[in-house]
C-alpha cells in the first residue's frame, strides 16, 4: 500500500467511525440520554476533523505547481470523499434531531 493510499484509508476510517458515533448518539437520545448523546457527537466531530485534515493536505498537494507532487485521482479517493461527506451529513442531521428531541423534553 502506498503512502497516498494509507492517507486515503485514513479518511475512510475516520469518516466511518464518525458516522458510527453519530448513530450511537442518536440511540442515546432516543433513550433520553442527552448527555451521552452529546459526548458521542463530540467524538464524532473530532473524528471528522481528522478526516478533514487529511483531505486538506491532499487538496493542497493537488494544487501544487510541481506536477510530481500532485496525488493521483483514483476510485479510492472518490470513495473516501463519499464516506467523508456522508459522515458529515449524518452527524449534522443527527445533531439537529437530538436538539429537537431534547427540546421536547423541556
TrEMBL record:
Cofactor note: Binds 1 Mg(2+) ion per trimer.
Keyword check for Transmembrane helix: no
Cross-referenced InterPro entries: PTS_IIA_lac/cel, PTS_IIA_lac/cel_sf
Key words of the record: Magnesium, Metal-binding, Phosphotransferase system, Sugar transport, Transferase, Transport
Molecular functions (GO terms): metal ion binding; transferase activity
Known cofactor(s): Mg(2+)
SUPFAM superfamilies registered for this protein in UniProt: Enzyme IIa from lactose specific PTS, IIa-lac (SSF46973)
Active site annotation, chain numbering: 79 (tele-phosphohistidine intermediate)
Binding site for Mg(2+): 82
Annotated GO biological process: phosphoenolpyruvate-dependent sugar phosphotransferase system
Phosphohistidine: residues bearing it: 79
Pfam families documented for this protein: PTS_IIA (PF02255)
Protein name according to UniProt: PTS system, cellobiose-specific IIA component
Upper classification of the organism: Bacteria, Bacillati, Bacillota, Clostridia, Eubacteriales
